[in-house]
Design brief:
SGL, mainly beta, Neuraminidase, single chain, 1 helix, hydrolase, SMP-30/gluconolactonase/LRE family protein
């Protein structure tokens, strides 16, 4: 189904350019920046938006198409929207910076450099930026309104955190974050380091600042989010067996968790990452090919044998939408793998998708849960 997407065959070529009709402002002076020759769909409805179940039809806007609003990143992550300013921030992890998309001007610019390889970001109930610095400092921080940085967590039981990854704030002002090892297991997204924690955990920072390990039995937990009523916590297990999964937990009034249940299985080479929940309880999940390859080598041109990938990235990259029961209902095809997403815009119905090198947007008939 690759030929249904108007941009999928035009990948990774040329210098950074303004893309007609896409609302993209050129990123002047960004070294090594690349762009797609992205062409938004000319016809309605956008063939990139697939209805997997009739229940998804009400969330698709007939006359809305996928837009490219920013590019030039190396690995886009952690989008967070600030309604007061009408802008979105996202992480460009290998480039060690935060990027900013301004909805009023359409400009996509560098917001802040040297951010300790920031990964996940969120906004607390007071409108402050909360960030997972997933390498070097290995901590969760809050940027105050005056620009000062407050450290919220960098250790647990006297030992350094692994590599804080994704973060969410609950209505009681508690902050929940995942702590896998991605930021310290290589040099691409930070600096190689030694894990000090015996397990890869999900932590809760109470309103009193106390840190507690709430989940300790997931292998490299990743994205996380609460249901609209906050009675469920969903967590991605990146190294689940046999596939990546989303686990569901019942949340007690005091924040305690119980009733661990597998809600979604990535089913083979599918790759779950960050996600968001809408007001109806649907999970909008960053999706793509996991990179898994065949254990058996196959003849390829040049007299070589190669272990070929088990799937095509162009068939899997995008956003997969599941209802609250874990049933897939919709899919948004993108020319790049989506790592994380966020609902933005004045009505919180513009879906921003942080995807490899670029930031995409699509208006939908769904709204952010919070």
């Amino acid at each position: 189904m690759q030929d249904e997407h108007p941009a999928s065959t035009e990948a990774r070529r040329g210098f950074l350019k303004t893309v007609a009709g896409a609302g993209l402002a050129a990123l002047g002076g960004v070294a090594g920046a690349q762009s797609f020759d992205f062409k938004p769909a000319q016809r309605y409805p956008d063939p990139a938006v697939l209805i997997l179940d009739p229940s998804f039809a009400k969330y698709r806007i007939y006359s809305s198409t996928v837009e490219l609003v920013g590019t030039g990143m190396r690995w886009a992550e952690g989008p967070v929207y600030f309604p007061e300013g009408g802008y979105l921030l996202c992480s460009d992890i290998p480039n060690n910076r935060l990027m900013k998309f301004d909805e009023k001007t359409g400009k996509f610019t560098v917001h802040k450099e040297n951010v300790n390889y920031a990964n996940g970001n969120t906004r607390d109930r007071q409108g402050r930026l909360v960030t997972c610095e997933h390498s070097v400092t290995r901590r969760v921080v809050r940027t105050e309104k005056n620009g000062q940085v407050t450290v919220l967590a960098d250790k647990f039981e006297g030992k350094r955190l692994n590599a804080p990854n994704d973060v969410v704030v609950k209505s009681d002002d508690s902050i929940w974050f995942t702590d896998p090892i991605f930021g310290i297991n290589g040099e691409w997204e930070g600096a190689r380091g030694t894990p000090e924690q015996a397990t890869t955990n999900v932590y809760r920072i109470g309103a009193d600042g106390q840190i507690a390990a709430m989940i300790t039995d997931l292998v490299n937990p990743n994205g996380l989010a609460f249901s609209p009523d906050e009675k469920k916590l969903y967590v991605v297990e990146w190294k689940g067996t046999p596939n990546r999964s989303i686990w569901s937990y019942d949340v007690a009034a005091d924040g305690g968790l119980s009733g661990k249940t597998k809600l979604i299985d990535a089913d083979g080479p599918g790759s779950l990452d960050g996600f968001r929940v809408d007001r109806d309880g649907n999970l909008w999940c960053g999706w793509g090919f996991s990179g898994a390859f065949s254990p058996t080598a196959t003849d390829v041109p040049g007299g070589m044998k190669a272990h070929l990938p088990l799937a095509k990235s162009e068939d899997m990259d995008g956003v997969k939408v599941f209802n609250a029961q874990g049933k897939p209902i919709g899919f948004i095809r993108l020319p790049e793998r989506c790592a994380n997403l966020e609902f933005g815009g004045p009505k919180r119905n513009r879906l921003y998708m942080a995807s490899s090198h670029s930031l995409y947007a699509l208006y939908v008939e769904a709204h952010a849960a919070v």
